[in-house]
Amino acid sequence: MLQVIKQERAAANDAIETSASLDPSDWDQFREVAHGLLDDMIAHIQTIRQGPVWQRPSDETRERFARPLPNQPRELGDVLDDVRTHIMPFATGNLHPLFMGWVHGAGTPIGMVAEIVAGGLNMNCGGRDHAGLAVEQQIVRWMSEALGYPAGASGLFLTGSSMANFVAVTIAKTEALGQSVRETGLRNCGRELVAYTSAEAHSCIAQAMQLSGIGSANLRTVAVDDAGRMLPGALRDIIGEDRAKGLSPFLVVGTAGTVNTGAIDPLAEIAEIASREKLWFHVDGAIGALAVLSDSLRGLFKGIENSASVALDFHKWGQVPYDAGFLLVRDGDAQKRTFAQPAAYLQRGDRGLAAGETWPCDLGPDLSRGFRALKTWMTIEALGTDRIGRSIAHTCMLARHLAKSLERHPAFQLKAPVALNIVCFGIRGASAEFVRNLVLDLQESGSAAPSWTTLNGELVVRCAIFNHRTTVADIEEFVDLMIEHFIVGP
Predict the structure, then answer these.
(1) What is the pLDDT of residues 406-450, one digit of tens each?
(2) For residues 466 and 105, is the Cβ–Cβ distance under 8 A?
(3) 465 vs 420: CA distance, rounded Å
(4) pLDDT at 227
(5) Over the Cα atoms of the chain, what is R_g?
(6) In DSSP terms, which residues pair with 173 in a beta bridge?
(7) Are 80 and 37 in contact (CB under 8 A)?
(8) In sequence order, what are the beta bridge partners of 282?
(9) How confident is the model at residue 182 (pLDDT cuts 50, 70, 90)?
């Protein structure tokens, strides 16, 4: 009798657990459907040149994503058909070699495979003792080696350099005011903090000052030279003026590749000033820092090894799938002093899953974190830094080739020196409206995707060449497109 009761209870529990599980009821069918989509994605990347760079999502697609919350399940095959019909054709376009409008990497099939693994493992890389943290620490050691940082440096994956720059500003603030600022905020600060960056710095630096509670009004913008690089003399002068006013300088942010033109600040000179003035020297390397992987470009970043911290994006020149921002900090203890929390549920053990002295959640604001390190590690392991560095140098060569091609045509005029891989040019005699419409026409035709920006008050076309798939032929095709189809007289 007891045996019958146990069997009935087991059958009932199995029925309940089967209905509660979200796994497939038919694993073989799931495997077949999933493999089909993987094949489609590989084909999508392999044939990316055959489609438009970008196309506007159709009205049907917009309506598809205006439906109410679904209560009942659908067949996975039907859901993936929606992916094929309503998502894949209407992506950003940055996989295509003629996407040049914004600073986006193109990704690689290797990174796509890594995302499958990371999604399947579903690890929370905020803490605990598991392989995900070991992989992230491997990237910290690699980037310390690449950027000339010492042993003991710490690092952290974040969504992107906007967050990495914010974390760096927060560390610099805490080091300037002491750990008590974490509890008391700025109200007990004796003197007003001020920071410095160039007039060409990314807007996320000002936003980081806002989010840190210091305020963007306390961020001084330092004048730049004709190439868009910070002027060290101007930096020295403005620091002196602020000290004379009784203010407290605490941070200077150099830029290793400005977003408008790719200009590189004189990092070695800024490092000397920061050391003399006892300022935290942070480098926003979102655009260009990974160029240190190229033998031919590394010298342009002399001085970055003397910084206190560097923000960079593997999802740009590193071609890692979005998102994979990263912060490297010379003084790992300073980073931990800024973020570590003594919460009971984060207590450490000397063994078991809670082992480990420092977890990523001790180094930044996120406790829940995905396995961003895997796609970065797999990309670097599979390709090697020599190959990645050659790809980076190749895009810079393409930018120079584009600049020379434009200079040979009387309709175009370069508007900034080509420091790395960004080319800004105007159209002689053209109005701002014409330039804007030229860019929009190119985008909407699906033939190419440049962008525009404003330099010295003039609207100009901007081409940021980060795609490892772009070739000389693509650049020549782009120039021909403008000449043959769009330059009909402003």
Answers:
(1) 999 999 999 999 999 999 999 999 999 999 999 999 999 999 999
(2) yes
(3) 9
(4) 95
(5) 26
(6) none
(7) yes
(8) 253, 309
(9) very high
Find out whether 321 and 370 touch, Cβ atoms under 8 Å: no
Distance (Å) of CA 380 to CA 294, 317, 406: 14, 12, 35
The residue length of the chain stands at: 490
CA distance readout (Å), 337 to 172, 208, 252:
11, 19, 20
Please count the other Cβ atoms lying within 10 Å of the Cβ belonging to residue 86.
17
Q: What is the pLDDT of residues 256-291, one digit of tens each?
A: 999 999 999 999 999 999 999 999 999 999 999 999
Buried b / exposed e along 415-450 (16+ C-beta atoms within 10 A): bbebbbbbbbbbbeebeeebbeebbeebbebbbbbb
* Tokens of residue 40, six digits: 């489609």
Strand partners, 454: 459
- Rounded to two decimals, what is the model's pTM? 0.94
Closest CA to 402 of 224, 258, 262, 300: 262
Q: Are 211 and 186 in contact (CB under 8 A)?
A: no
The owner of tokens 């923000």 is 311
Evaluate the omega torsion of the peptide bond into residue 323 and state whether it is cis, within 30 degrees of 0. yes
Question: CB of 288 within 8 A of CB of 420?
Answer: yes
Q: In the structure encoding, which two tokens stand for residue 236, read together?
A: 């020295």
